[in-house]
Design a protein that fits this description.
The chain has about 50 residues and is an alpha+beta fold. It has one domain (about 1-45). It has two helices and two strands; from the N terminus they run H-H-E-E. It has helices at about 1-10, 25-30; strands at about 30-35, 40-45.
Length: about 50
């Protein structure tokens, strides 16, 4: 159910911030991914 809400918001051109420790989930749901280590953003970008 939560996934459906995220997808609907993104289709409506909204930005959604989601956190997960499971990279596979992020890859399936996101257009862009950022990685944070020790409180700092170390990389962000698209999957392509």
């Amino acid at each position: 159910m939560v996934k459906d809400v995220y997808v609907a918001q993104v289709k409506g051109d909204a930005s959604v911030i989601m956190t997960t420790h499971i990279l596979e989930v992020a890859e399936r749901m996101a257009k862009r991914i950022g990685l944070i280590a020790e409180g700092r953003l170390i990389v962000d970008g698209t999957l392509a």
